[in-house]
Amino acid sequence: MSHALIIGAGIAGPVLAVALSKVGIDATLYERDAPDQDRLGAWISFQANGMDALRAVGLAAPVEELGYPMDDISFINGKGKHLGRMPMAARRPDGQVSLLMPRAELYRALADQARAHGVRVEYGKEFVTAEATADGVTARFADGSVAMGDFLVGADGIHSRVRTTIDPDAAVPRYVPVLNTGGYIPGFTVEARQREFLMQFGTKCFFAWMPTPDGGTVWFANPPMKHEPAKGVLSGMSDAQWRGWLHELMDGDAGPAAAIIDAAPGPLTGWTTYDMPVVKRWHDGAGRMVLIGDAAHATAPSAGQGAAMSLEDAVVLAQCLRDCPDAAAAFAHYELLRRERVERIVKHGHRSSNQKAAGPVARLLRDAMLPMIFRRAERDGGESMMWLQGHHLDFDSPVTPIIARA
Ligand SMILES: Cc1cc2nc3c(=O)[nH]c(=O)nc-3n(C[C@H](O)[C@H](O)[C@H](O)COP(=O)(O)OP(=O)(O)OC[C@H]3O[C@@H](n4cnc5c(N)ncnc54)[C@H](O)[C@@H]3O)c2cc1C
Q: Which atom of ligand 1 is nearest to the CA of 126?
């Protein structure tokens, strides 16, 4: 049985480990952080195609129970004017809906599932570099330890070290000029329809909220910040500074933003966000190292698709390793099957982030255009998003055509 070293136990890593266990490949997960480490972005929206990928490898049920279904998104402007309502997900024939869930619980559930499938998960293991050898690969960690396997998968996120190990000249993540902050407020309700996210293109800041069935509210805001803040600037901001800034940004806009900012449990914190447009090399060409998830192609959070894309990668890579003659052919075929789709989504995410970061002139244009765009989306009932959220993976079907090693 061959052995895979998977770097990163975020979203893609554990799911890949489970998928590999189904095709007779044994894996160990190496995660830099502690199991209970705070995660970027408190809540995560998990779109229908991500759930489909989980279902393909039998992991949908434990994730589904963590989430609140979301049916629609309604948009308003700073004055509270309704701009449009669109379905959160395309109307899939299998009825799969999108879900909103706490990120920390999602990570925990996926790592638990990996362990339940016999995968070893090692925490506190910071990957530093790796070398391909004649018969495998050796990974080196910051604590001085090494691990050997037949191949290594970089599921180590947007700031991937596996990416630079494969290609020292790889592109670096592109800063997205809106920050992200938010969380969950238990026992706090806002006037809004159940299962509907309300999103506000505020005068100065994008702000969103959704009531949860247990009587709470999930919210997030995207304060604009043109240039990437220096390291330590955001983490150095106090709870009072965050609240003061958010109040200032939302001042004068209609809606419950001010009440949400006051009610949110502290300390508030925020995150910078990035995307990763084109990573030229997804694998080393020798069947020893390959990238999946954000390490290979990160979309801005506005697309709400990063998690789903990572999961689709994990499933397709396992299929390729099952059906291709060797790992080199499998990695090449996986790239062939995935690259076009993920790069299209990265572009889509970039466009929606730009709308959130619009300056005064672009804002006028955006506000004039949005009702038209939303009316069209409302009319088509999500059909135009079927390429994205309607995607279906059947794990048992062989991937074709199989590329023979050159
Ligand atoms: C603020 C924010 C909000 C977001 N909201 C959404 C959303 O609502 N919906 C959505 O679909 N996507 C969202 N995303 C994107 C989504 O989080 C990512 O696309 C997704 O997590 C990618 O999964 P991954 O497994 O590739 O990487 P990650 O989930 O980032 O996992 C990578 C793992 O690798 C570990 N790691 C990193 N470096 C090393 C190392 N050197 N050695 C060992 N381990 C290492 C990390 O600790 C981490 O556990 C958001 C992102 C941010 C920043």
A: 42
